[in-house]
């Protein structure tokens, strides 16, 4: 048996006719940049998430870069964030000439540990950027309390968490701005790169809209130097179709997680994901903490089961951030998790046979 991390064939098969029709409509109109499908998608996401403004852009990375810029952060300002995330979380800060200040994570959720944030605040700190890693919302109650107390902005990197909630409230609705990625492997994936900023702040929304079109207002008059970072019409048309299936897909992922939780519970060498009772996860990943992780990884690979390490090297130890001065053992939980985590297939189209095979293969390794 061969099981991929994500089966895009299975995902697209039932909706491909609808997608082709939507693409054909864009082709017939030749309205490739900022066509009506872009606003349609923005409105759809904003209203369904209950957030005032959705601003489409070229990628999840750009959504973060635009957000940092729109908040006026740069010039050696500091942004507190997690070292246990995809690279773009930190690079978006760096590319605005600001400095990421890494704070260690809670080993149970892999998310920023709010108890460690206040000690990292300096006079240069301008914002906190939590990541809702693997589809589970960070502790936004604690993070917003700290942000308010110290007058800091909050940018939610929700690239992996579209639709996840905290205490019944939607991710991206806590901070000043939240971002989404529609990279093809995210829960809501485009057929290429695409991203989005979400905010309830009218002024910030206007700035983000301006920044994505070179900072122009009106056309050909530039108040500031912005970017070329629009959401492609074709991608918006595709996402419009796929968005209507998202909730059902997230339910499928949660059902698969429940199956794994039950059937992997007795293996004492692994820990299944812990979801805070205040959070509803969308399981962008199902991530185990394992003894002898690399051995298990090789075993599953031999069995034809794809699995992946997200992420093998925490951001504070990346070579490109050397000048920040972090050393090994500075953020021990992130470093420990980088050595122990393994994500296994969780996509909603997994069949019962596939799930059984994955569970049996993990059991077999530790027996
Ligand atoms: C995927 C991802 C991004 C970047 O999104 P792209 O659309 O690939 O640019 C940023 N942050 C996190 C946590 C991600 O997982």
Structure description:
The protein has twelve helices and 13 strands. By secondary structure, it is of the alpha/beta class. It folds into two domains: 229 residues, Type I PLP-dependent aspartate aminotransferase-like (Major domain) (Aspartate Aminotransferase, domain 2, 3-Layer(aba) Sandwich), CATH 3.40.640; 121 residues, Aspartate Aminotransferase, domain 1 (Alpha-Beta Complex). The strands form three sheets. A seven-stranded mixed sheet has the order 1-9-8-5-4-2-3, sandwiched between helices. The protein has a three-stranded antiparallel sheet with strand order 7-6-11, with no helix packed on it. Helix 6 links the parallel strand 4 and strand 5. The model has no long low-confidence stretch (mean pLDDT 98). Bound molecules: pyridoxal-5'-phosphate (PLP).
Keywords:
globular; 367 residues; 2 domains; seven-stranded mixed β-sheet; Aspartate Aminotransferase, domain 2; alpha/beta; binds pyridoxal-5'-phosphate; single chain; Aspartate Aminotransferase, domain 1; 37% helix
